[in-house]
Target: Firmicutes EssC N-terminal domain-containing protein
Amino acid sequence: MNILWIFHQEAYQKLEWKQIQKQQVTIGSELEHTVTFQTYPKKEEPITIRKEEEGFSFHVGSSQTRKLEPLKAYKINIENEQFTLYLSQQKVEKQIYYIGHLPELSFSTRRMHNPLSLNKQMRG
Model:
């Protein structure tokens, strides 16, 4: 399963391509775009991402189309705003825990390092 991550400032959006049911996704400032960011420059064309036979591609307005490769970050600067595209190819496992007022940290469990050495590093 392909998951498209879009990072901007302190926020991010995640789209599972299977749920979208389209061959194309747009990122912009208008409600008709698949992903909407209020800070996206209104005068600029949206970022367009397409699913093709050999993978995914993206372009901004009339700029050259670039291939969107999995597990590689693509930074796009539009005026003074930076957007980062990232394509992953696995299902995200989701678990939610109530932590109250404490700061939240997320760790991947895919490649687990020795948890004891991690604890030592965190303690100083």
User: Anything to note?
Assistant: Helices lie at 17-20, 115-123. The chain is about 10% helix and 40% strand. Residues 112-124 have pLDDT under 50 and may be disordered.
